[in-house]
Structures are given as structure tokens and as C-alpha cells.
Protein 1
Amino acid sequence: MKLKYNFDLIKEWYDRIDVKFEIIKQLHNRELALLIPSWVKEKEVLITSTRMLRCHNLNHYDFVLKDLRFIERRLPYNFYYSLAQYIYGIPYQNFNDMANRKLVNEEWTKTHLQELEKFDFLLDIDAGDFSEIDSAFESANKVVLRLINLETPFEIRFSGKGFHVVIDEEHFLKNKFYNSLPREHKLMFYSQIAKYFYNTCSEMIDTTIYDFRRVCKLPYSLALYENSVLVCYPFRDYYEFKNFNLDKFRLKDFNIQIKQRGLFELNKFGNVDKLVKRVVDNGKKGI
Amino acid sequence: MWINWLKGWLIMGKREYDYDAERLAEALWIDSRGKIVDVDTFDMYWDDFFKEQGQSNERDVKLKPKVFRHLKNQHPEIRTTRTFKEAGGRDLRRDRKRTAKEVVTRKEDYKSAQRQDLSGLDTKGGKKITAKKPVKRKTFSFVGKRKGKIVYARKTFVVVKGKRQARFRDKRGVFVSVKKKK
């Protein structure tokens, strides 16, 4: 397939040692997925999306880059990671015996909930195309200001064509109401939080997919689109987010130091109590 | 041994398992709060699930039977038959709310009902039926603002002092302001 960007730049990005370490840190006991974006129409390319990749150290990372040969094959993979974290991570993958790998993974998808350690909350704010990125930013800003007001600890990240707000489940586990819910209802509650923001802040929030296999764009990976490549970037604080400029995150113009940068939580010492109460109260009012 | 390596290399990355259908099935079950019992209720909750996002796209339509199969595997009590067989899968609840003189929700009521608006449905079972074209869904493809909230809007036209002008309405039909696309 014909792509308009330079794959050498993409290779150069993923070969950087600082990028490798930042990516590996986030994949501990989580699943890595390499997915072909939906704007690709060629069927033979679409079917190369791969999930159930284990990437907990440099060896795994080098395998993903080298043995899958996605740079040589010019596959426009986007890197995703699972919101679910497992006690022992996902099963070891044997690419020399695909039939067995299929059986192992199918068996694991039936039993993975037993090994689920935690499942983070994600709010996905997506622009339909780049002309709507200002509206997506405005939507994200409304959500961020509301979360700051509710003293909720959260992360805000740029995902390429939108923004992600992520709340670690550890904060929810300290809340009495959330803890009283059975596991399946916790997922429904996440869906209710998303609907609350959908109804009060913006219709650009995706409320459709809340399930235990949900994946999210990996920070510090590249978001590949038809005509551009952008860096998925976690913001350090509200000031950095407020001064968002799309052009700063184009790969060819990206010059922010990311060595040992990690992820950042706003309202670090807050809690989700006010957020939970607000969502429950609004649920009772039918909002 | 090397044959297995070759097979692995040849089919590397091929989608062996339909994760999307499985994920959608789980999300749909959770969203319906476990109330899917047959194909009609599955269709109803499917439509509701995608309602907030506007139309479901071609990819979702192709995934629909796979999603139902996944649901059936996980919840064997779901029937693969329809309650309203003659309706052929149309959402009776949606059509009825908009145009019907009498809303029918139970199977027994449907069989005995006479004055119904079965827009686009199979008319073999009913009596005195008026068939109409189903209402087309509008596309909400413009981003606008209403009372500070970011909303999706569709373009409509009004005539003001004899001149045709574009106006944008959100899903509730309320006028919203839309920025011009750059």
C-alpha cells in the first residue's frame, strides 16, 4: 500500500532507547496490541492486526519490532495497550506453533477475568477528522476542568486525533460505593461516568465500548494517519495541556525531551469520592 | 519443526480470533443489563447501543451476526428465534413510538392488533395495515455548541425573508452554532 510518510523516521523513533524504556514501563503485565487503523482499506493489510503480544522487557520489545518486520513490510501499526492489568501478564506466545498459540489464547480469553488485577478507567474524546481537533480540545478541556474541580486524580494524554483521560482503578478501589459493586457492575459504572460527561460536557466522548478487553493508545508511541504521524503524548500538567498545539506533536517536528519522563497524574493527592457521588446523584436524576 | 516455523512466518499477524466481535458482545450485554433474550431484543439493544454515535457503519453491520454468535456462546439461554417473526427484525418499538396509533409491546397484543402502522414490515399477519416508508436516519456530522456543551449537529435549511439559509440542529432538534471548517 502507498503511504505518504517516511518509514525510516518511524523506525528511528522506535529504535530510540528513551522511547523503548518509556513504552516498556507501561506494558508491565498488560497486553500489547498492534492494530491497523480503520482508514486503511486494503483487506490484506487489515488482517495483519495482532493482539496478545507480551512486551515486558527489551527482548520482547526487540522481537515485536524485528521479528514482526512491520517497518520492512510498511505496515501502519498503531500501538495499543490493555487497560486491564493481570497478575502474571498475558500467556507466553509461541510464534513457531500458531495452532497452539490460537488454542492457548482462546482458552485465556475465557478465563482471563480470574487473573485480572485491575482495570483502569478511560474517557476517549475523539475528533472525526483533524478539522475538529479544536472542538476535541475544547471537550477535553471541559472534562479536565470538571475533574480538577471534583479533585479527582487523572491523567490527560494526546492520542493523535483526540485526547484520553485515564483514571487508575486504585483510586476507585478506595471508594466505598465502587467497592460494593460486583465486578460486572463496575464496568457498567465506568460506562455511567462516560455517559455523565457525554451528557454534560461533550458528545465527542465515546461511550460505546466499555469491556474488559479494551485497549488504549500507548503513550510515547506513534499515531499513524493517512497524511501524518503524531506522537501520543501524556501532558505533565494543566498548563502544558492548555497550551496544546497540534503541530508540536508531528513526528518530524517533535523535540520534547522524553528520557525518564514517565506518566503524570493531575490532582495526585485527590480521590474519586466527589466524582462517584456526582455520577450517582445524576444517575438518580436521570442525567 | 521447520514446517511449523514456516507456517508461523507465513500467517504471522493474521487475525486468528475475532476480538472486536467478542468485545462488542460483552459491551452490549453489559449495556443491556443482561436483558437480551432473543434476536428481537438483541436487535433492539444493538440499535440503542449505536444510537448515541449516530448511524452504525458498514463494519458494524458485518460484525452483527458474529456478535450475536459470541453472545449465544456465552449465554446459551438466548433464543436464536424472533418473538415478532412477521416483523422480520424491524424495531417495532421505534416505529411505533413515532407513528403508531397503538403501541404494541407483547407478543399476544401483536397477534390481535388490527390498527397498526407497520412501516416497512411484513404485512402477512396483520389486518387493515397501512405501509409507509421507514424514516431515514439523519447524519450528524457537524460539531457545534449548545449552552456550552459540544454537540453533533445536522444541516437543515430554513427560509428567511424569501432566502434559503442553512441552520444546524442537534439530536434534540435544537438550533446550535457551528464553526466553519478550516
Note: Residues 53 and 140 of chain B are 9 Å apart (CA to CA).
Protein 2
Amino acid sequence: MAIKGLTDRNLAFPQIGNIRKGEKVTKVNAEGKTVSFPHDLKYFKVEFDAQEGDREQAFREVYHDKPTEINIRIPFNQIDRCWDPFCEAYTAGRMVARSDGEFFSYLVNLTTGAMEVVNGVNDKGEKVPHREIIGKAGKTDIKCRPVGRLKVIIPELRSYAYLVVHTTSVIDIRNISEQLAAIQYANDGNLIGVPLILRRRPKMVSTPTADGKRTRLEKWMLSIEVDPKWVAARFAQLELMALPSGASKPALPDVPEDTPETGEDWSQDEGAPPEESGAPIEAEYTDRTDSLEGEPNEPPLADLRRAAWPEEPKVSLTMAESVRTGDTKEAYLDIPREIIAKRLEAIKNTLANNHLTEAQREANELRRDVAQIILDLKI
Amino acid sequence: MQMGIHLAMETQRRYVCARCWGPLIILPGEDRQMQVVCANPARCDGKGFVTRKYAERRREESIAELWEVRSNYPDLVRRTRKPTAQLLAELGFQGGI
């Protein structure tokens, strides 16, 4: 039986049908009255809107009339936008109550017709606890029963439209909630694009009997399962991610052999600056800043230093602070600025000497860097 | 649903059909009461009303949902181009314009 008017709502992303687990069966009872009651099926009953003949035909070509498995996709990444499990009560075709099992989000007074709860609170701003029996319609109790609605896209229809899977089973609602949450968790919080299969699986379920006892009956429950091919690919990806990387880590830079360490005695090296004796150190000193004279805009101090000292220092601040003199083991940081300046000049004069070996030159360059850094600190 | 004329007019103004969200019309009923029904009974068997504002809000939300689903599943709809000759033939042109 087709649904009339469902797709006349002019929605951009419309609902085009319903997927149900059972059907209504009419029967004449012993009193001669025609009554209808729900009958559970072992397959899905899929109904399309009356105007969706093409899509229904495309569906029947793939799944026929009594499908037990349907390929589905979840339209949105947020579970609560696709899955609506609530407890609802209806009377005369109108919903009179909706709750999440704990509090009512919507409740109508059956006697007066007034809305007692709207948007989760009553007129006093308080939450109203859930109760199963809402009221009476004649002699019949109006009960709040669990209802689950799942929006799904069927990829074989090749259209941006969805169907709604309906269930009123508490077990189905719990299973679908847990399965969707587990799939989302296993896929790093993502539900989009995961190929799912909606199945009906037989399970022995404890159900109440007419005499108040309970018995186990076979029921065909809903189950949302991930396509096994996707699962295999996902496990392969997880195994790859779990492997140690090792070779991809970058190697540390090489450390020069004669890098001075804390406490090293520089006085034993050739070309080391003379011991501090208080006498003025006579040395040639070239003022490298004379090339910058006459500049219209005087460059900042850092640029001046860079011009006089073109190479980047190879010594870090931390290392320079830890360097000590070879004789007195005094930290350079503790030596007065004037003395460091004099030593720096002496080192530069030494470096100006072209007769130094490569090792001597590197050692003096290192001392020059250290002295310069300490000098800059003491400005 | 039968009601007085004023309530019927107010209902027609503020509500739409609960099934197809289409307009409502007022039909005369019994005992000077009016019936408010869906304006398209041939295509819709809806009973009941929803507010017009709700229907309009849902339509706007649906547009946003469509954009989101399109970005989530860009390859869901296969768009195939028909050949030019086929298009012309369908439009009634034979052997070119």
C-alpha cells in the first residue's frame, strides 16, 4: 500500500517511505467484530510514497518484495539527528506525550486538552517525571510506549532522500542505540560513508503471556551491521597504524669533536687568550662598523652586530652560560663585562692570524661565539 | 473536524495539513459547523494539522540537510548526460534544428 502525500511537502531532503517490521492484520473475532492487530514479520515491509514509483521499482529490482537485508547509509554524522528513540503516547491520531524515559518533553492533559509540558518543562519551569500511563480515553489507558525511528539512505536508489525504519521494541531500540554508538566509536567518531546492512535476525526473547507468566519466543529483531569488506579493510588499517614507525624519525645533528664542555681548560690550547693580569691588551682592532657610517637611517643594534659578525653563532645561550675559564673555573657569566670585551677583542685578533690550524681556528671561533653571547647578555 | 466559522478561518490561516503540509480548505458541515480539510484529498489522506510556521521551518531545515547530505555522499547520485541527438529528438527536433 502506497503512502499518499508524503512527498508533497516540498522538502529538499524528503522522506519517501517507511520500513516496518510488521503489518496490521484484520480478523473477525468470536463476537463477529472486525478487529485489527499487529503481526510481526520475518522480513521488512517497505512502503514508498505514491509518487515514488520509479524509486520503488528500483528498490524492488534489487530487494524484491520481502527483503531481510537492506544496504543503508546514515545521512548525518550525529546519531541524534538520525535516530529518534522516545516513549510516546497517542490518542485519536494525535501525540499527547513524549518522554526520554526519564522526563517528559511534551505532555498534553487528556481531560482539558491543555499542554502541561512544552520543551521539557511545565509552566513552573520544572521537569515532569516520566510515567507510563498518561490518562484514560474512555475505558482504555493511554500508555507511553517506546518508539524508535531511524532515518536511512538506501544507496541503490541513487537519490538524496531517506526512508524511516520504525520499531516499537525496547530490545531493538537498545540494540540500535548501542550499535550506532559502537560503529561511530570504532570509526574515530565518523558514521558517514560506513556501509551498513540492516538485518532481521531471529532471537529468543522473553515475552509475557496472557496468564502473567513469561516464556521465550523467537522474535526477528533488528540489527545494524557493518559490511564485512569494510571491516576487513578497517582492521588492516588499524594494524598498519599500530606498527612502530622507527625509521621515519629524523636523526640528531652531528656534534663537533672539540665542542667545549663545562669546565674544559681552554688555557691548554694554542692561541688561547692570555690570562687576565690587569694589564691592557694591545691588539689590532678593526672597527667593522665604519662601512655603515653615512647611512641615512641607522640600522638597529641587532643589524649592526650581524654586519660585524656575519656568521650565525654556533653556540646556544644555555651552553654559553655554562662555560668556565680553564684556570679559575669561573663562569663567563660571572666575569665583568669589560674583561669579556677585552678577551673578545683578543680572540678576534687571534682569528685574524692566518697561520692558525683548522682546529685552532674552530676553537677560537667557538670562544668568540661564547664571549659575544655573554657580552650581549650583559648589555 | 467540525468547528465554527471563525475558528475554521483561523485554523485555515495558521495551520496546514499534517500529512502533506499543503493548504486547508473550509467545507460546510452539519448544523452550521464547518469542516477544515486538506485541499488535496485525492493525493493526501492526512488527518490533522500542523502549524504553518512549523512546516516552513522544516522546509528551510531540509534545504540545509540536503546540502549536508550532498557533501557527505557526493557520489550517491550519478549524473549522466544524454547525447545531443537524443535531447533534440526528445524535444521534437529531427535531423537537427
Note: The mean pLDDT of chain A is 80.
Protein 3
Amino acid sequence: MQEPTFLILSSLVDRPRHGYALLGEVERLSGGRVQLRVGTLYAALDRLCATRLVEIESEEVVSGRPRRTYRVSAGGVQALREETERMLDLATKAQARLRRRVMAVDAGPVTGVTL
Amino acid sequence: MSVESRYRLLLRAYPSAYRIERAEEMLGVLLATQPRRGARSTAAEAMSLVGHGLVQRLRLVRNAGGVSTSWCLAGLSLVMLLMVLGAQQLVASGLRALGLDGTPEAWGMQVLWVDPRWPVHAAWVLTGLALLVGCRAGLIVALAWGAAGLHLWEVASIASGGTVPWPGDAGPHWVALLGPTEVGWLLLSLAAAALLSGSARTARARARVSTCRWWGVATAGLVGIGLGQLLAVGTYAFVEEAAPAFTVLLLGLPMALAAGVLIHGLVQAPSDRLTLVVLVCLAAVPLAVRGTRPLSMLSVAATLVATGWVLASIRLVNKTPARTVSIGQGPEN
């Protein structure tokens, strides 16, 4: 799963949102690191709608323009759950190895260096 | 240019069906986020819009199977053309062998002088027949490349002045000269084989057009050319000095047929621009072979037949509902 997709699904899990709100929520979730482009956002939304992970909840007219609200589907929640578990599993393994590396250097050959 | 009109211009990168669904919504979001943005971010946004728009266009083309199948269809119609012309040349040789070509003085020799290009003609006739009787697409592609390869071999033999041996030279034969006509024919042969672009595409392209159409085109071409050939022979038999121009006029029968098909196709066809470009380029090859030789006229006629047929088949292709984009439903392939 690509990062924009993951972030969009995460943003939709707590409540349905429309396009502009999604952009803001993704930025907030990533701590300001990821600022999605509108083109990328809609490309991801198209992909998610096509694979039925996201649905259009409603459509209203705001300032003369249509505004669609998107919500995550049950399939989307499941996909996000699986992806989160996968990432968590990988991150845990990587963290364990990093800890072992730190300990190994600590107990390494006599160099007189302490960390 | 106002910000909104600039974004509208950028959104034109997306295909029109997509724009109808999405453009206003995207524009709303773009304008809402505009105040927060710096110049660099705006440029990145513009590039993202154009990039994603082009990707959407490519996806449309891929789903419709449009461009690639059209090229393949053009190739298949070229194969038909070469089959018809190859058959014509073989029939002409046959008439000569039977002494029926109507010019006893010229061909009074007992020996049959063969057109050294007969293997190439036979190969294209075989390929065309394979298409008509519904052989596997892989076989058709293999035969087409075989015929094009044979043609290349023949031209190499002529170009090398006979150093490269050529099977068609067995027995008494004409001397073929390497002129623009020969090169033009070689280019058509190679183009026909190349346009088929593989057996998968050929199978798909052939599936889009019913076999009846292929048979119809083949029949029209063969009948037209056969009639022209026989009438030319008849002219020589009954007219003392057969004016070459008159003979050429008779061979224009297939040209008349082709013009009718072309006009019909043009009136009906929606714009499938790339196919048109291909056909115009291919048509220019024999047209560039300017001259009063009947063969050149024949090549023009036959190219028109192929053009008209493919244009007519475009109408059939676009009848299948493959070009609509529905957001929210995935591409089903």
C-alpha cells in the first residue's frame, strides 16, 4: 500500500470527510511531513473507490461547486487493519535488531568507548 | 489570468469524461488550498495535475484497447491488400502461361517467363488466406513475418545484382529492377508485418471485426482486380493498338470500388486520429511512386481499398461501449 493511500484511509476511519478536509487531516496525521497534492489525492481516491475500499457518502453543492464526502468501507477498514499490523510487525522486528546492535557495540572488543 | 482559469487550464490535462465528473470538485479544493500555498508548492501542484491527467488519459486508451488494436487492424487490412495484389500477380502469370494474355506477339515464345517475385506473392496470399479461414493469430503473425522476410531477401538479391541467390530466379524469368516501386512494395510488406505487433494483439484485433467483413473485402478486391485483369486481356485481344492509358483505366475498376468504400467509411467514422495518420502515411508510399506504370496505379487503388476498409471498421469498433469512464468503478480487464 502506498503512503498516500494509507494516510487517506487512516484519515477516513474516524469520520467521513470531503476533499479539502482530507488534505488537512493527512497533513495533521503525518505531523506536517506529508502535504498531499490535489492530483495525488484524487488519483488515490479513484483507486480506493475502484477497489471499493472507500465510498462516496454524499454530495452537496457548496459555493456553486459540488463537494463529495467520502467514507471508508468495511473492506477499507479491514485493509487498513492488515496494513497496520504488517507495518507494526516489521517495525517491531527492526526495532529489536537495532536494540541488539546497540547492545553488541556496547559489549564489543575493548575499545574504551562507552556509549 | 485569474487563479481559477489557470487551474481550469491545468485540469484540461484530464480526459473530458473525467473532467465532467471531477473537475468542479477538484477546482473547489484547489482554490480552497490556494491561500496557504507558496510559489514552489503551486508549481508542484501544477505538475501533479498534468501528470495525473496524462496517466488518466493513458488508462483510458489502454482500457479501450484503442490505439494498439487500431494499429493492428491497419496491419491486418494491409495483409489483405497484399494478398489481393499477390493473387493478381499470380493470376496474371497464369494467364500468360496459358497464352491468354492477349499479346501473342510479345509472348510468342514457348517458354514461360516467370515473375521472379512469385514466392513473395504466394506467401502473402497464404497469409491472407490464413486470416480468412480463421487460423490462430500466432500463425498469421508468423506467416506475415515470413512473407516480409521473403520480400526483404528478394530485394537484397536484386540489390546485390544476383550475388545473393533467390529461389524465384529458377528458370526463365524477368529481370526485376530495383526502383522506387520495388522499394515501395517492400516498405508495405514490412509495415504490414510490423503493424501486427504480436499474436495477442492480432487475436484481439481480429476478434473486433467479424470474419464476414474480411471475406467481403477480399472478395471485393479479388473480383475488382480479376475483372480488371481480364478486361485488360480482352482489350489487347480486340484492340489492335492497346493504348496503355486505356488498360490503366480498366485496372482502375478496383480503384472505383475502393473510392466508394473510402467515402462510406469517412462519412461514418468518428475520429480515431492515430489510425488515420497511419493510413495516410501508408497511402503516401505508393503515391510517392509516381509514374504511368500500371503497377503504381494499382498500388494506389489497393491502398485506398485498405484505407476504406479500416475506416469502415472503425465505426464497428466504436460501437462497443469501451470508451466511457465511470468513476467509482474499476477498469475491468
Note: Chain B touches chain A at residues 22, 24-30, 32-33, 41, 44-45, 48-49, 51-53, 55-56, 327-331 (CB under 8 Å).
Protein 4
Amino acid sequence: MNIHIIVPAFNEEKSIGSVIASLKRGGYNNIVVVDDCSTDSTGEVAFVTGAYVLTHIVNRGQGAALKTGIDYAITAGTDVIVTFDSDGQHRVEDIEALLAPIRAGEVDVTIGSRFLQGHCNVPPLRRIVLFGGKIFLRLMYGIKITDSQCGIRAFSSRAARNIDITMDRMEHASEILEQIFKKNIRYKEIPVTIDYTEYSKAKGQSNLNSFAIAFKLIMTKLSGG
Amino acid sequence: MIALTQTLLFVFAVYVFFRTTSALIKRQMSIKEFIFWSAIWITVIAVALNPRLIGNISRRLGISKGVDFLPYYGMIILFYSLYGLYIRVDNLEKALTKIVREIALKNKGKQK
């Protein structure tokens, strides 16, 4: 099975090298880093560590970078695409659990969830924000999911062709879910563990950004998008 | 006696109306946008020539004071304009992303 790991990255020179190295140790060699116009050496570090690096000449956001990586993987003849964050929060060991249901033909998309395990290490304030996001998506799109913002997912190439990411920034995560539900794409949530470090918490999106995401989603719905 | 404010308002509104018409002729503006903006500036011209018109219009619309007409309907027009601008900016952002992504894919990546 031809697996491509898509790693969107923006100013992650401190973590991207170790993320790629750990993916390679896990046996994943088709690693595509989409450098979203970083102002540091993210692209260079990714190149030296052995990833295939695509570069945006203007910063467009994680959603746009993912779509670039996904489009590349599709033309490269991928069977499965895994989206993986560049800040070191995701665990390589979780990838196999995401791939297994797709390999078995049970589903076309698997989505990581931080809330399916018995324990949950999400910081309390982030948990409240994510709960609000869950309710919002339920009201806006009728989506029932335990974790709407987890960036680790796997798509069969069929699902990847079917899902069209049009939102550039962090709203893309909700848009992907909306399309999965609207297009009746078979999916499954898989428990994953996120490693919250001081670095990743500092680099991650602010809890306040959730309001901007909600506003963008509402405006897109109002304008018929 | 025509007040200075009326004169300035009249001259300004006529000027903007002609700019709007010019934009339509040069195809810098759609017919829909021309009708929208012309309606506003023609109304401003009419009010500049006859300020009592605001009072008449306001009473017909159920607003007791003519001076309250502007904030109520001005806000609606402003919000509509803002919404239109938001849509335009969003479309421009999408177009920019499309260009950036195509360049990234056409340039092909680099790998050691």
C-alpha cells in the first residue's frame, strides 16, 4: 500500500527534523512537507532530513497547505494519505491504528480523537473550547463527533479525491468533517494521544481563535459556500 | 437661501454620481452595483436640493424624526456594503491560494 504522510509546516524548524526522523523510523518514507512560506529554515531542515518539500511562496494557512500536499499525493499515485502535524504533538505509533480500518476496507476516512481513551490529557481550557466546537458543529451541520479539531487523520485516495478543502486556515478541519457527513463518506474515530509540550502549546492556535473559526464558518454558510 | 452644507453636499453627490457612471461605462462596475450606488447618490442629491424630503420619507417609513432616518437606514446600507466587501475579499483570498498552490505544485518539490 502506497502511503503518503502530509506534514503542513509553518516556522517549525525546531521540531520538523525530529518529526520527519520519527516518521522514517516508523517505516514511512513518502513524507511530504508543505512549507507554508516559513520565515525560518523549516523547508531546509525538512529537505536535509529527507522529506519531499513543496513550498508556498505566500503563507496561506494549514488548510491550503494540506490541500497542496493531498493533491501532490494523488498525482503521485497514493493509496492512503495521512495528515500529520509538524509540531511534534502527534505520535507515529498512532498511524497504524488509523490505517488498519482503511486497509481492511471498513471505512475510507479515520479521524484521530483525543477523547476516546479512558484518560484524556487535553488541557482543561482547551477541552472546554473543543466541547463548544463540538456543539457548534452539531448545530451548524448535524455532525456528531468527539473531536472536531484533531489534525491526525487518514484518507483513502478515493476519499481524498472526494473531499475538496476550500478553507485555507484552521476552519478546514470543520470543513473536512462537513464534507464527510454531507457526502456520506464512511469514517471512524480512532483514539490517539497528543503530546502537549510547552513548545507545541506556544505554537498551537490560541483558544480565542475558535471564535474566528466559528465566524468564518457562519459567513461561509450564509454566503452559500 | 441655499445653505453652504446643502451646496457642498449637492456638488459632492453629483461628482460621485458621475464617477459611478464613469465606472459603469469603463466596465469597472456591474449594473447591479451601479443601480445600488446610483440610488444612494441620487437620494443624497434630492435631499441636498430639498432637505424636507428626509422628513417626508421618514414619516412614510414610520420614523417620527427625520434625523433618525439616517442612522437606521444608513446602518443597514453600511452593513450590506461591509458584507459585500467581505465576500469580495474572501473570493480574492481563494484566488490567491489557488495561484500559490499551483505554483507550489508546478515548481515540483525538492528531495535529498
Note: The mean pLDDT of chain B is 86.
